[in-house]
Design a protein that fits this description.
Organism: Roseospira goensis
Number of strands: 4
Strand order of the largest sheet: 1-2
Structural class: mainly alpha
Largest sheet: 2 strands, antiparallel
Radius of gyration: 17 Å
Protein name: Putative phage-associated protein
Length: 191
């Protein structure tokens, strides 16, 4: 990890998601929180050349992807922790992850993520093996670009980054709203 994570702590992202759920009058259970944080770490790394959203290590727990430090801290209630504001890029990603995956049930997220190679490979290596961010980028970054419709989080695949990140809405020279995405060059294929 050559660059520092975007946030100071995984608590910053966890509290952001918990507060967002409360704003939407929803209860975010601990298992679902961990699944969303895992997806946020994965998609942030895909969108930002492998850079981490938060200094968090996810492990392949029998129940699904889990960040053990947060798991212990939230064991009995919401811990009293000073959180720092999250930079715009992090807020945009977390908002996109919430909008894209927040409506899914905890069971759906868990079943799909447990079959994805980053988790499955780590789980095969042994109990509570670390899920490498590089493995997340390799899997979640290879989703095909959408031709139409929306990509689904399934046992065998995940949506393309452009289907997860919410586009910014800007105005064209004529004043019409247009969606814009950060430019990401396509990977170069070996010849």
């Amino acid at each position: 990890m050559a660059h520092p994570p975007l946030t100071d702590s995984a608590f910053d992202a966890a509290f952001w998601l918990l507060d967002r759920a409360l704003d939407d009058n929803e209860y975010l259970n601990p298992r679902k929180l961990h699944r969303l944080l895992y997806l946020a770490q994965a998609y942030f790394a895909v969108a930002n050349a492998g850079h981490w959203l938060m200094p968090a290590t996810f492990v392949a727990d029998p129940d699904g992807p889990l960040e053990p430090t947060l798991f212990r801290a939230f064991a009995y209630s919401r811990p009293r922790v000073d959180v720092q504001p999250i930079p715009e890029a992090g807020r945009t990603l977390l908002d996109s992850v919430w909008r894209r995956f927040g409506a899914h049930s905890t069971d759906h997220l868990t079943k799909a993520l447990k079959r994805h190679p980053p988790y499955a490979d780590a789980r095969a290596a042994g109990p509570r093996a670390i899920i490498l961010v590089e493995a997340m980028v390799a899997f979640y970054g290879r989703a095909p670009r959408p031709r139409e419709g929306i990509g689904a989080l399934t046992d065998s695949g995940a949506p393309h980054i452009e289907q997860v990140l919410r586009p910014r809405v800007m105005r064209s020279q004529s004043g019409k709203p247009v969606n814009v995405h950060q430019w990401r060059p396509r990977p170069v294929k070996d010849r």
